[in-house]
TrEMBL record:
Residues 14-230 form the Tr-type G domain. Coiled coil: none annotated. This is sulfate adenylyltransferase. It comes from the Bacteria. Its EC number is 2.7.7.4.
Amino acid sequence: MTTTPDTTAATATKTLLRFATAGSVDDGKSTLVGRLLHDSKAILADQLEAVTRTSAERGFVGGEFDFALLTDGLRAEREQGITIDVAYRYFATDKRSFILADCPGHVQYTRNMVTGATTADAVVVLIDARAGATEQTRRHLTVVQRLGIQHVILAINKIDLLDYDHLAYAEVEAEIEALSGEIGLDTPHLIPVSALSGDNVAATSANTPWYTGPALLELLETLPSKEEDTADLEPFRLDVQSVLRPQGGLAPGLEPDEYRDYRAVTGQVTSGRIHLGDEIDVHPAGVRTTVVGIDTADGPLDSAGAPLSVALRLADDIDTARGTVLAAAGSLPQPRKTVCAEVFPFTAEGLRSRDRVLVKAGTMTVKGIVTIRSKQNLQTSQTEDAEVLAGNDIGFAEFKLASPLPLADFREHGRSGGFLIIDAQSGATVAAGIHTPEAGRT
């Protein structure tokens, strides 16, 4: 197990990290997040005063307060003492800015954890040092492994209740290492922490001299982010939102004569970078053209990278509309009408074989029919034949599509390999899918 990150890729220019937190109920996750916010000085004075007052009403004495109150903002959550939805928090240190997705702990909200972790560069999974790995621990580690999260941190919490005993911690560490190996999770970082006391959260603690790795916040400050690592390595891709043919006014940087013939496709750069003069492939037109203009609200650019929203002018008059995909020449995945994917249902009913659905990838939506192939037994980490994927299951399905989609491998290209599964009748989102063509499921 690694406890020290590879900092060769981490530099002072890496300013933003997205990470998610997850853990079983009562493992102390909300307290940990509150401690992170407090120790990074991300709490406003009036909020701190209100939390201190509420903590005193709950029996906290001597100036101590309930760190969980800094994160559980919904009234229903406070009344129940649990976190029931993904909450996004923003904070910063001198070295980095963070977007934190605070995920719920109950088993029935595993699907929310999928939502929070999909865009994360790292995931912090909290484990009660006294209880060790639970069913929900296995679920969370399975989800992050299937999503291909590069950096997984296991925070072994409440080490203070074990009197900071190294042998007791080592037993939990061995259990987690065995579980990680069983699931196929590569070298997660293990950190002994006390969210309540602050041990190894923002700074290393003298109470754990046997631990030589970084504190949690120190580790988060040095981990490379997915976007920063791959912005100039991933091939360019843009899912077209609309086609711009303005009727009045002037476009930035254009003369009136140029503006009369102005036509551009707009959208957010999904991955990579585009430069003036670059050749791109256009799907579903199946043609290649050249980018002759890159316009933004602030004026024209010579190049643009993810996640900037842009209007691209093309050298040729090509039939484009919402749902068109633009990609660096030669990089577009082979469009296919049969897609195999790992599926994470969002509803109790989930998905059944022969369900008719809508598959939404980027800005393109196509009709499809589902065939469930198998689901993962989260007790044994084995796959089993299945016809139904219910809420909180993780499984594999095949989709027969009415029109081909150029989906990338999610593990390699992230967002351009993910899609939503929508009930064709109600319009409700019933599941998320990630295209995974490996292991013979093509």
